[in-house]
Amino acid sequence: GFRCSMSPPVQFTGQSHQPKTTNPMNKPARKAIIPTRAGETVEFDNQITDKNNQTRYVHNHFNPYYENAEIAGVASIMEDITERVRAEYEIKKQAGLINLAHDSIIVRDLNSRIIFWNKGAELKYGYSFEEVKNQISYELFKTVFPEPLDDIKARLMQTNYWSGELIQSCKDGK
């Protein structure tokens, strides 16, 4: 969700609005805002503790305003990104487990570009992930298909499944 606040308090329809979150001018915010000019927006992620003493992650959008060349206050939007941060952590943890597998695990996008490559694939094919990232797999491996590639792709798109034996080369040509 979003929470908007202003520091110092400003008047909204006759009522003073005081932020209910931690003062946005905490150390990370101050460090990010000090070098900015009026009208610039500063964005950064931050970890905070909520009123229930739970850790939350927020994406901050700060827009400082100035009086006499000094920061007079900050308009801010704080977006709660806790669920996204936790999901990213889980994905990294799972990718770490996949890297422990001795089997080759290669993930390609619909254009056959390699987007994931585990340690087992590194050992089998001789390439690091950095070497193969975004490479077209069948070009990299000099793949020989048992039937035309277009037929394989058509069957895969129709049934979400294809099985067959491929002939591929490793980095050393074998």
Element order: H for helix, E for strand: EEEHEEEHEEHHHH
Low-confidence stretches: 1-25
Q: Would you tell me the overall average pLDDT?
A: 79
Instruction: Name the helicity range.
Output: 25-40%
- Output the number of helix runs: 6
What best-fitting shape do the alpha-carbon axes yield? elongated
Strand content: 25-35%
Estimated structural class: alpha+beta
How far apart, in Å, are the first and last alpha carbons? 54 Å
Gyration radius from CA atoms, angstroms: 26 Å
β-strand number: 8
Question: How do the strands line up in the largest sheet?
Answer: 1-6-5-4
Describe this protein's structure.
The chain contains 6 helices and 8 strands. With 174 residues, it is of the alpha+beta class. The strands form 3 sheets. The protein has a 4-stranded antiparallel β-sheet with strand order 1-6-5-4. The termini are far apart. The longest helix is centred in the middle third of the chain and has 19 residues, at 82-100. The chain has helices at residues 27-33, 82-100, 119-125, 129-132, 137-140, 149-159; strands spanning 2-7, 10-12, 15-17, 42-49, 55-67, 70-80, 106-108, 114-117.
